[in-house]
């Protein structure tokens, strides 16, 4: 079965759904969940003013912290209501190009399952698979569950 499940999140409703699925999967398999938030540094580097980059970086870090806290609260809520067994999880914030960071994390953390949203905040439409998700699906060497 699965030992480690990676859940990339951007705090969107879609990634929350992916997190809920990962929790149920971890419950049945006993897997650890690694929740990953990536700060897109390519986006930051494109900003023209240093003070704007610094403020945006600060805002994105705070957003990442909130997204990870929301996931933690969801796990605690499920456990407190007796809906699932104790789920071990780790929260990680990294910087870089999101798809690249996700793919590197899969290898570094020895992930054997990824649960990812079809599209998140950066997705153009719910009908189109997000570019980050598409790249992860294309290049990952482990099973991917895409949640819509």
Short description:
With 148 residues, this protein is α/β, with parallel strands linked by helices.
Would you write up a description of this structure?
By secondary structure, the chain is of the alpha/beta class. It has a single domain (4-147), classed as HUPs (Rossmann fold), CATH 3.40.50. The chain has five helices and five strands; from the N terminus they run E-H-E-H-H-E-H-E-H-E. It has helices at residues 13-29, 41-45, 50-80, 98-108, 131-139, and strands at 4-8, 32-40, 89-96, 113-117, 144-147. The protein has a five-stranded parallel β-sheet, sandwiched between helices. It is globular, with a radius of gyration of 15 Å. The model is unreliable at 123-128 (pLDDT under 50).
Topology, please?
Elements: E1 4-8, H1 13-29, E2 32-40, H2 41-45, H3 50-80, E3 89-96, H4 98-108, E4 113-117, H5 131-139, E5 144-147
Helix pairs in contact: 4-5
Task: List the keywords.
148 residues, alpha/beta, Rossmann fold, 5 helices, 5 strands
